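Homework help board

Subject: predicted structure for assignment chain

Our instructor gave us this sequence and asked us to write out the predicted structure in token form, then describe one feature. I got the tokens but I'm not sure how to describe them. Can anyone check?
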Amino acid sequence: MAMVVGVGFEPTYATRADLQSAAFNHSATPPDCHFHRTLFACKAATILRDKKAQLICQQRSRLMTPKSAKKQHSAKNPHRNRQKPIPNRGDVNAGGGRRNDNKRPSNHGQTATATGKTAPKHPQNGYFIWGRHAVFAALANPDRRIQQLYVAADSADALETEIGHLGQHRQNDIPTPQMIERARLDGIGGAGEKAVHQGMAAAVWPLDPPHLDDFLAGLVVSQDITANPDSASPVRLLLLDQLSDPRNVGAIMRSARAFGVAGLITTFRNAAEENGVLARTASGALDHVPLIRVVNLARAIEQLQDNGFLVAGLAGEGDVEVGALAAHQQLAIMLGAEGSGLRRLSRDHCDMLVRININDDAESLNVSNAAAIALYAASLYQAD
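My token output:
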């Protein structure tokens, strides 16, 4: 209990207040507390009013002060307007720490290499090819349309020499090479991979794929198959059944060029698209071996058979060994995708299924290696 002490009075114990009585207006607040709150509010308002009036007077006095007085005031305080020395930009950054001059700003929307250099802008409706074999083959192909040539300083002489070997008409179609740093060419492959460009690259449009009918008509004329089939040279074609990896297709095209294959036939859908990775892996073969695309591979097989071709499908369960391919003059070898192999409909349209004997503990061959083996076996053909 609280003690109440008064002047001339003995200490007595205070009685407990009734907080619900009428004397407190049923709010547990003594009546005189309202008076003290009102008084405090009035004093606060008076203080704020005086502060506001003082600020107004200061502002008016500043406006009325002549410029000469301001100059004298500045003269009395020479250190007042002295600026702080600006630090050397090469020493510190905005955060006060030591700046790293080797750090370059990020390049949004552009392909960046590890060195911070940006690759040339990706060609519109086209793609990049890189490497000497691929670029030189594109230059020599009259059907290849080139948007721009890029060359590093140490490769400029080799590119100029190659262009000089071309005919005048083809030279007129080729744009003037643009000099570029080698580091900028590193990023043209995309996907964060460093391109093995050998100091040159070209921005090109895709090749126009020939129609199968036109291709076969030109093939018959060039090989003279119908006029004298016994004396005609062997004709080799490759059929690709849903091979979608551009590296595999590029490697197959490289082997096809090495063994004189007349053309590759694949589908528009579920097949590797023509791009820089395929062209680089093909090492120039893309511009030498025609790549024919068809809507329906089964119908294309029937069309080949109507033109005298024997269609042989490579399959692990084939009943004929790969050496049997050398016995046929007009031969089309069909390859299936890795893992799934030939589709059932494609198998049913084959004239025979051919196997490559490998060790029992080996599951399968890479499809590009299998193509090279089959093409070598077919190259052993000898006319009767």
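Reply (TA_rk): Your tokens look well-formed. For the description, you could write something like this. The chain has a mean pLDDT of 77. That's the kind of observation they're looking for.
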